[in-house]
Amino acid sequence: NSKTGGHVVFENVEFAYPEREVPVLRGASFEAKPGQVVGLIGTTGCGKSTALKLLERFYDVSGGRILLDGTDIRKYKSSWLRLQIATVAQEPKLLPLTIRDNLAFGCPTEPSTKQIMDACATANIAELLADKAKFPEGLRTKMSAIQNISGGEKQRLAIARAILADPPILLLDEATSALDEESQEKVQGALNELMKGRTTLVIAHRLSTLKSADKIIAFDQGKVVEEGTHEDLLARPESLYAKLWKKQVGSAKAEAPMQPSALEQAPSAVLAGGELRETLTGLSTSTKLAMLRARIAEAPSDAPLADKHAILRIVDA
């Protein structure tokens, strides 16, 4: 019944699928410390999804090793290992059972109705389950009886299932890529709750969802070619991450988040002056506005109103 601490290390991992000769991973090395959120990025076929499959031991490595809390994962029982990990994928696997049985699937012990409903509330799905038109028998409704269940609703059911399983390690494989903006917002909120306190490996097509990751690992042709935070990698215009970001979002420079030092440490009088102006140089107007308004909201209540007005005037500079 013991749980892993969630410390994951890939050491020079080599792998080729049995039916293919070309290796997918070529000496890939990276680390995810307990509780860290680590993004995996790269173009299609670079090996990032394969890395997740290897961690769950759907395949074994051809070379190198994967360590969990310092032990080669091949030394653990597969049944125990898979209880340590929950996956939320782009197309969640929902079984032809009742909603309750789907949610309890993968739990080490049978969850109570209260635990199930608490998980559904965290996953932003409880209100939907109360809709008798869609779920006529609530948790006892069979999946086959549900009409027009959306991708976002399936995702939130999968998230509730992962919350109930309570694994130390979470794998998110393009979990929001197929959703519209409104659905993504609800699902992302549920994912943020789910990720708290867990080692999380995230594959995301929308790079904006990785901005707050503790670390981003870039794969290219089966190798790890760079790693760092969102800010670190955007500061290197030639990095793979910066190039992919620029394609998706526009100018990496214009969208790079401000370094916090000048805004967080300077007194209000300085905030209206040249130091702040220099900090904001090169940012887009919309980014300046968002950050300056946030800074004003955090300003001491006794800060002079003139200082706050001066801060906003910098936007037009």
Automatic annotation (TrEMBL):
Domain of life: Eukaryota
Protein name (record): ABC transporter domain-containing protein
Originating species: Haptolina brevifila
Assigned keywords, A-Z: ATP-binding, Membrane, Nucleotide-binding, Transmembrane, Transmembrane helix
Keyword tRNA processing found: no
Cellular-component GO terms for this entry: mitochondrial inner membrane
PANTHER family for the chain: ATP-BINDING CASSETTE SUB-FAMILY B MEMBER 10, MITOCHONDRIAL, ATP-DEPENDENT PERMEASE MDL1, MITOCHONDRIAL
Pfam families: ABC_tran
Membrane topology per record: Multi-pass membrane protein
InterPro entries to which the protein is assigned, alphabetical: AAA+_ATPase, ABC_transporter-like_ATP-bd, ABC_transporter-like_CS, P-loop_NTPase, Type_1_exporter
Keyword Transmembrane in record: yes
Residue stretches making up the ABC transporter domain: 8-246
Location in or out of the cell: Membrane
GO molecular function list: ABC-type oligopeptide transporter activity; ATP binding; ATP hydrolysis activity
Main location: membrane
GO terms of biological process kind: oligopeptide export from mitochondrion
